[in-house]
Description:
A: alpha/beta; 2 domains; B: mainly alpha; 74% helix; globular
Amino acid sequence: MMKTPRETGACAMAAIILTDLRKDFLAKEKEPGLLGSMKAAFAPHYRKVEAVRGISFSVDQGEVLAFIGPNGAGKSTTIKMLTGILYPSGGDATVLGLRPWVDRQRLAFQIGSVFGQKSQLWYHLPAADTFDLLARVYELPTAEYRQRRDRMVDLFDIGEFLKTPVRKLSLGQRMRCEIAASLLHRPSVLFLDEPTIGLDVVAKQQIRDLIRAMNREEGVTVFLTSHDAGDIERLCKRVIIINHGQVVMDAGVNTLRHNYLHNKVIDLKLAAPVADDYAFPLAGVTVVKARGYGLKLEVDTAVAPMERVLGLVVEGLRVADIAITDPPVESIIKTIYEQGVPAELREDAAPEAGWTESATGDALC
Amino acid sequence: MEVRRRGGLRGTFGLISAYAKLNLSMALEYRVSFASQVIGMFINDGLWLVFWALYFTRFPVVKGWQQQDIFMLWAVLTLGYGVMMGLFGNASRLSFLILQGQLDYYLVLPKDALIHSLLGRMYFTAWGDGLFGLVVFALFGHPTPLRVVVYLAVSLLGGLALISTVIIVNSLTFFLGSTQVLSGQLYNTVIHFATYPMDIFQGVVKVLLYTAIPVFFVSALPVAVLRQPTWPALGLLAASSFALATLAYAMFHRGLRRYESGNLVNLQS
């Protein structure tokens, strides 16, 4: 039986508490073609879509939580309920003690949010102008606002392009401005919905460093959704995996890494063609794809040390280019489904020592 | 950080001022377009008055309305429209914003989501209308201090009735799905009928203009109050405008419960 946060004793130190939170949508369905459209016009048929199916967990103040899952899993819907954008269909949630959809305006003073695909910066104006607007919206005293803005400008290193219209910024520059904007009013909780989407490696790393700095220096609770395993590995101590609107795993990132992120993907471009039935001469290395001049290997580093794998690659193949990456979150989730979630990692299992004691509130109440 | 909480009118005016600065800055990014929009609308409105002036040279009275009355009708309507659509330009786009999930940005901000949504875009062509109304009243309205006060009051109350009607129809999107076409048609109908003397309409049309298409409160009643100011008439105008505004506010907020957001890529522009 799943435990609710209240049953587990989550209390004063929990910044976010979800209890059996649900959200349904009605989706209109029609048969393809004009005839289908005409039928639907006279007798529309609606299907109930359960986007979030009763999820329960809590997030401690100061915690950095990765909330991940494949497309359509219910991540964004959950975040939108927690920020007051959407009303839930059932269950309950509080953020900093406030019910978001009821106390949205009060809560807004205490939370920040960044939606990777929705900008809060005015596209034709410099970010500095949006900052000024937000200062008025959040009623920040002028002197304190300027001090805070200057600190954000320094920290995020955005002074050089603060006066450049947003439409002329790179995606990485814009995202740094977006996050700085969301932190101007010193929120206690920051919701980040795919903040690194579309960014290059350098920009991603900058964003991660900045999020980590804000968490460390100001104790900001971070609720992060991402498809990027790097975000999760480098930022979070705890990860919740959601799929089909349900929490399927709630575990420490160390546990996730130990169980799933020990896999690496090696993409090779070769100077000579490789046989289609090529087999790598080491256990723990799976050939994902071998065709023409391309070869893709998946390495279980717990079985096959990377040093040894690379040695064999260089010895046995004529390498023109090489790239080593983490498997995408989708593949981790796929792995979780293929191999099943180990009993100790299931979301209603006992918390991992260390971080989850506080996550469930047992150590704090 | 200590945060001040300024609610009420002061906070709202502060917010309007901040949005106005940003919208004006954005307009000035494309200053030629901005100037041409304002001047173009001014000229457009002027041509209508030229048309009416020519008309009244042939027919001096239309159902009791003279040239002076028509000029005041335009002075009231254009100022009310100019102020309301100039400041709350997103009112006519609410249906689109709801369907596209673009209310998200406004919903995560403190203060009222409807106010943010309306202020998010200001139409500068409407500023030309507002300026035109002021000029017409200054030239033909026989301004005295009392008449100026009454003119400003009835114009703003008529504008409030107009913008409230636009919000109500757009908010139907929460309940009925897309009402962009309906709201566009109603918007054009209100504007169209509001520029003519109400007395020329009879029967069913007149009933509609008093009820489903509340043109009476947008232009006819404000002009009547300006022509002959009485407390009961002004009270009726104020009451009807605020009743429409209250209904608009309630419908929007009730509709938010049904808001479904969306996942389109959005930018504030």
